[in-house]
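[DERIVE STRUCTURE TOKENS]
===
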Amino acid sequence: MKTLVAAFWIFIGAIASLPTMAQDLRPAFLLTGALSRDSQDLSGQWTYSKDLYRTGLTDINGWVAKSRMQRYRDVDVAAVEAKGGVDFFEFDLDRGPIVNVPGAWNAASPELRYYDGLIWFQRKFNAQALPGKRAFLRFEAVNYRAYVYLNGKEVGRHEGGFTPFVLEVTGALRAGDNRLVVGVDSTHDAQSIPTFITDWDLYGGITRPVRLITTPATFIDDAMVTLRPDGRIAGEVRLQGPQAANQTVTVAIGALATARAITDASGRAVFDLAAPKGLERWSPEKPMLYDVRFSASGDTVRDRVGFRTIQVKGSQILLNGKPVWLRGISLHEEEFGPNPARNMTESSSRALLHEIKHGLGANYVRLSHYPHSETTVRLADEMGLLVWSEIPVYWTVDWDNPAVLRKALAMQAETIYRDRNRASVIMWSVGNETPVADARTRFHAAMADNVRRLDPSRLVSAALLVKHDGAALAIDDPLADKLDVLAVNTYAGWYGPDKLDAVAKLKWKVPADRPLILSEFGADALAGYRNDGMKKFTEEYQAEYYRQTLAMAEQIPTLRGMSPWILKDFRSPRREHPVFQNGWNRKGILSETGVRKQAFGVLADYYRSKQ
């Protein structure tokens, strides 16, 4: 602990201790049981208005045009015009063009395909009076910055494109008609997470569902349970509201067990009980989920929870105390259809995970490079897929900036609080392909320590770079000391000097005391491009690349899994080869429309041999 706090003092300087920072990073509201609550889905058709000059945010008080540029104002422009009023407005969201929410605007129309900036969205809805109750808006994801107004009143802001946020609107909500306006700024910069340099498409918009949720005055804000390695079930419940202290909290695990605890002055209750007789452990082979009910102060939330343990012992990964080999694939969330809109419905997410589970014969999926939708993670629970989850601390980050570290830790906390009850999630990743440097290593170390503080029940990893060490590939990264599971991205035979027929002979220098995962390897292929002398971008080259890399992997004694790059071709504006790419990264073993390439069969055969 002293070392941890000292590291933060050195790196941040202005922060007294990590526990204080962790407490500060906890969102004001979580509503982790939101899906089981009374709610109004605000999905559907919203109107929008582009704001190229950012006038809705930047016009200053006193400037003559300010009042006519603010799109979030609670004003019926058509009604004003009909009455012959003298007011003049430069916007009219009531009569603006229409876009479907959730979804990225990049897929909505050709003019928005590469739009990067600020757009205002509006949704009108009707609400009932709420005597004695509270109201919240819960956004599952808005990319990247959100400015939220209800009936002309600002109710909150959020930064981060892949994690949920909750805003209380009790005082702003009206009985009857309401006007919700959200300014969405997709712009990334050197201080954002991720920065403006990525190898995927930074889709903008309200990309996941929005709900209006009602609760009692005192309500359950957060609730979690977990199975510890010692066979006991532990958890906590947090209440919010005027009667949060000294309340009895009841937790029921199906019909197997019930436990009670009393909240402290802050509204937090912890409990600890022996795992009940007959409790079946969750696994990919039998993904058993239990109905868990949390009750306190007249409020109840429900969840579907699996109970399992995940540990590392030497170079083994142990699931429920037994060694497991992770047969997986990497996945981007937008991988669905020729015009992806990053709207992962249950049916689209289920289709992708079904291809992984049953097409490839996998038991594991790497959700890269950001937190994927809650729908996807819950389906992984249901279908039996182990999950690697990460936040987009990717390639280039302003490592020396305390404010950027705080953004990363906040995003990490939002992800962990959302998914702590998901049995499928076994690993939190703290980064991907970041160049080794002292400031970068301190940054990642702070993230690893934060994970262990918030969720010690799961493993910590990161996708590291490798280097050539003579005739071998080696991990030379001080961050390795902070990781439970080592993971490396390797593209020998595609990038770099190694010839394809030499890949299988490559040797590795890796620590013997920890498990290793090949978190990425891959080669591009344009679906249907075949029989052209084993040239790059042919399906034959990609398939042979997989054969050679899998043969190499068999020689790594500590290898405990892999997640090749990637399930499907995905949008990437940096990939501009005019014949083979045209804005798509072609490393998928499926095309963007789901056509299986030859490498799909190579990997599926290999995984069948590992079962």
